[in-house]
Write a structure and sequence with these properties.
The complex is a heterodimer of chains A (about 350) and B (about 525). Chain A is mainly alpha-helical and about 350 residues long. Chain A is built from 18 helices and no strands. In chain B, strand 6 and strand 7 form a beta hairpin. Chain B is globular and about 90 Å long. The interface between A and B is large, with 48 and 51 residues.
Chain lengths: ~350, ~525
């Protein structure tokens, strides 16, 4: 049977492909088959349940199986689960798994298991949203190890020589084209100037939704003087998308994405004129302004609102005028006039 | 046929009893909207063309520069405290037009400029003709997790306390749900398994039933606590600023809220905080003209997105909180009506945020109330209506009801899934004898069985998001495995009509709709 761990588990979370786990769980929860319990599967299924993806009877089995965990043998799987949960930006699983693991570390007398947790709690999650949970859990494992062995806390033994994070060390050993996703994301908050631009350009080139998200986040993360660069690269990345995708991204909850999408539609001369007209009444002025600029570029028209207009009512009215214009003149961009 | 007189009276009783008996009867429904004019639009409502033609406006010209001396593009330049403002252009230049009638001779005009990434800056303009320069200072981009949160409560010793300079705002906030997010009785009932009188082990008990999950609550209910396995459970000691829940300093340190994982990344985990280094100050907010050198303008503070991570949540596998996504699904979102437009509408109570402490008189429409009503009866009564009509027919007494949630930008009730709106009908003879219902709905089991003080079985309707266990038990906390059995909540501005027929009587009948 396929073992779920690491990136494969994360991929499952994102693709909602839980059929495999659903079939596996009955045996896992009630021990009806003669094989070792796969705690990784239990933890993964619990995460799926906890974020609302695994419902009904399957969810109940996942929950029950997780609640039933009471063996030291589960500590490695819980440790891996904490690492995974810390990277998927969902609050519930990281908190519940951390609490569960802390309780087991508190109760166990198995020094090897405590040492395993300490060694494998991923310090690379530090600096991420839930990094403080992993960090405090690692400290707890360290103190527990010291208590069990009568020795001193070991915290610090995995610190890199010369300081810095493991990600910084990895990055220093490879060209940016070979950096892992996590390294690129971490670099956004650490690199500067030309190095930072290289990271942003790499995010623009990579395939996958996570890189779009990372480039979107980059607009917030990078220093002020680099925000325009990040916004431009995000728009360039979106040019590669299909019209259908761009249409969906105009509804994206993040205004940065919507604004970049409006810009990208203007770049690629996409026929999404009606969608741009609707975007002019976007509540976020960045989106509205960019939508108007792209419409003007694509149609050669300027039917408002005037530059500097701040009243939302006027933007709303202009949006309606643009929609009427698009309805009357078709949805295809107007090619530039011949000289 | 001549109809017998029927006395009818009706009113709304908010809340509902489920497991919390009387305690929940006082529970209201949070986050009720009403359509309000956008504050930005209001601020710009005065027209400069009102001035007499003989007095052309005074034009103030100048340039906004950033920290490095480069032109600051798109900065908002404003005559502080007024609606007169403009934006700097692509080379940082601006021209601000002010009606002569608005100027007071001999008094300087305080010009301020605000731009993302910078503290709000300002200087006086004394009528000089030459260009003036406004210089902005960028604020540090790094968050400092060793920051000491400012306690909002008044203090004679600590001059930095919020209430010392903002007593009215502090008073408003003190009455709000945010101030009581960590210690209000309803939350504690659910968290600790207590009842309204504080007696233990009488109801749902997250801390007891599911101890691994109890820290999940803290990211919204005690958001200023640094999250870690050590921040386990509630911190209710009064000397702790965290016991004050969603307090002033926390809210004004939120630089961004991601909606990328809305519902899954809760409370402060979805927020980007910007806490300054020790000894330094930084406060984010919705005003773009507070130029003390420590204030930052953030339009986020006028957006529903700001509220999203605490008012949307899949918890323990259950989509327990859905107010933000409900709002996204209404035309209120389409029209740009934000949470703050209703729940922070000032209603012209406060005109000076810091009277006697450097604050200036302002158009109250530009200020926000921090009472954030939603769960109080007065606010509910503004937005919920019940119409009742009754007449005799051959089959009996027909009572028609219409319940409407008006100007509310989400479902009603919203928020915590135990919140219920109950329409209860009673028909009695003048002597108090109950008249039986012969047609029409009765309240389901989710309204609480009579032996627990509930209303199940009574003629009426339940408006609620009803969660059940897999075998259909509606009395289940959301940290157990649940299913959404029914969602009968009121949709915005859509009347819900119902008909009830009671057995005919010759004598007068009193119809009571609660």
């Amino acid at each position: 049977m396929r073992k779920l761990s690491g990136s494969s588990a994360i991929a499952l979370l994102h693709s909602s492909a839980w059929v495999f786990i659903v079939f596996a769980l009955p045996a896992l929860a009630y021990g009806q088959r003669q094989r070792a319990v796969n705690y990784d599967e239990i933890v993964d299924a619990f995460i799926a349940y906890d974020v609302g993806e695994l419902r009904g009877e399957a969810g109940a089995r996942a929950y029950a199986a997780f609640q039933a965990i009471n063996s030291d043998d589960a500590i490695p799987a819980l440790t891996r689960g904490v690492n995974r949960a810390a990277s998927i930006n969902n609050s519930c699983p990281i908190i519940v798994l951390s609490s569960k693991l802390q309780g087991m570390l508190q109760r166990t007398q198995n020094v090897d298991m405590v040492a395993h947790a300490f060694d494998n709690l991923d310090t690379d999650t530090e600096g991420k949203v839930y990094g403080s949970y992993v960090k405090s859990l690692k400290q707890f494992a360290d103190q527990r190890y010291a208590a069990l062995t009568g020795g001193k806390p070991r915290l610090g033994r995995t610190t890199l020589r010369g300081g810095g994070t493991a990600s910084q060390l990895r990055r220093s050993q490879k060209p940016v084209e070979q950096w892992a996703y996590e390294d690129l994301v971490e670099a956004l908050g650490q690199e500067k100037d030309a190095e930072l631009i290289r990271v942003l350009e790499e995010l623009r080139e990579r395939r996958g939704a996570q890189y779009t998200s990372a480039l979107t986040d980059a607009v917030q993360i990078v220093p002020e003087d680099m925000k325009a660069v990040a916004r431009g690269l995000l728009a360039q990345r979106l040019i590669r998308m299909t019209d259908e995708t761009l249409r969906a991204k105009l509804e994206h909850p993040d205004a940065e994405v919507r604004a970049a999408t409006a810009r990208a539609i203007g770049y690629k001369e996409s026929p999404l004129l009606a969608e741009l007209a609707a975007a002019i009444r976007d509540r976020d002025p960045r989106v509205a302004q960019q939508a108007r600029a792209s419409l003007m570029k694509l149609t050669g028209q300027d039917i408002g609102p005037p530059e500097g207009t701040e009243s939302y009512a006027e933007w709303y009215a202009a949006s309606k005028r643009w929609e009427q214009w698009v309805a009357a003149h078709g949805k295809t961009p107007v090619p530039p006039e011949s000289p | 046929m001549k109809q017998a007189p029927i006395t009818s009276r009706w009113w709304i009783v908010a809340g509902g009893g489920l497991l919390f008996t009387a305690s929940l009867l006082a529970v209201g429904f949070s986050l009720v909207w009403y359509f309000a004019t956008d504050s930005t639009a209001r601020r710009q409502s005065k027209s400069l063309i009102d001035q007499p033609e003989s007095q052309p406006p005074r034009l103030i010209t100048g340039q906004v520069l950033d920290t490095s001396g480069e032109p600051a593009v798109g900065a908002r330049v404003r005559w502080k405290g007024t609606e007169y403002s403009t934006l700097s252009d692509t080379v940082g230049r601006f021209t601000l037009s002010i009606p002569m009638l608005a100027l007071n001779e001999g008094q300087p005009v305080r010009l301020v400029a605000a731009l993302e990434g910078h503290f709000i800056g300002g200087r006086d303009w004394n009528g000089e003709d030459e260009d003036i320069t406004l210089r902005l200072v960028s604020y540090p981009a790094n968050d400092h997790d060793d920051y000491d949160w400012i306690d909002p409560r008044p203090s004679e010793i600590d001059e930095n306390r919020c209430a010392n300079c903002h007593p009215e705002i502090y008073a408003e906030w003190s009455q709000s749900g945010h101030a009581r997010s960590a210690n209000n009785p309803h939350f504690l009932n659910v968290f600790l398994g207590t009842d309204a009188a504080g007696r233990a082990d009488v109801g749902w008990n997250l801390a007891g039933d599911y101890p691994e999950g109890k820290s999940v609550c803290l990211s919204c209910h005690q958001p200023s606590r640094e999250p870690s396995i050590e921040s386990d459970g509630l911190l209710l000691a009064e000397e702790s600023v965290h016991s004050l829940g969603v307090h002033c300093d926390f809210c004004h340190k939120v630089a961004n809220v991601s909606t990328q994982h809305v519902g899954l990344s809760h409370g402060r985990f979805a927020m980007t905080l910007l806490r300054p280094a020790r000894g330094e100050k930084l406060l984010l907010g919705p005003l773009d003209d507070v130029d003390r050198g420590e204030d930052v303008y953030s339009p986020l503070y006028g957006e529903s997105r700001y509220c999203a991570s605490c008012h949307e949540g899949i918890l323990f596998g259950t989509h327990a909180y859905s107010t933000y996504s409900e709002w996204l699904g209404t035309n209120y979102a389409e029209r740009g009506v934000q949470c703050q437009d209703c729940h922070m509408a000032n209603h012209r109570q406060i005109t000076n945020m810091a009277a006697g402490h450097g604050g200036i008189e302002r158009d109250p429409a530009t200020l926000s109330s921090h009472a954030t009503p939603g769960a109080d009866l007065g606010f509910l009564r503004e937005h919920l209506s019940l119409e009742v009509a009754a007449h005799r027919e051959s089959g009996g007494i027909v009572v028609r009801t219409t319940v409407t949630a008006r100007d509310v930008g989400h479902l009603t009730p919203t928020g915590h899934p135990s919140r219920q709106l109950l329409l209860v009908l009673r028909a009695n003879t003048e002597s108090g004898q109950a008249v039986p219902l012969i047609a029409g709905e009765r309240l389901p089991a989710a309204a609480g069985t009579p032996d627990r003080g509930g209303q199940a079985g009574q003629p009426g309707k339940l408006y609620a998001k009803t969660l059940t266990s897999l075998d259909g038990d509606p009395h289940i906390p959301y940290w157990d495995v649940t299913e959404l059995a029914a969602d009968t909540r009121l949709k915005p501005d859509e009347p819900d009509r119902a008909s009830f027929t009671f057995a005919g009587q010759q004598s007068p009948v009193v119809i009571q709709a609660d």
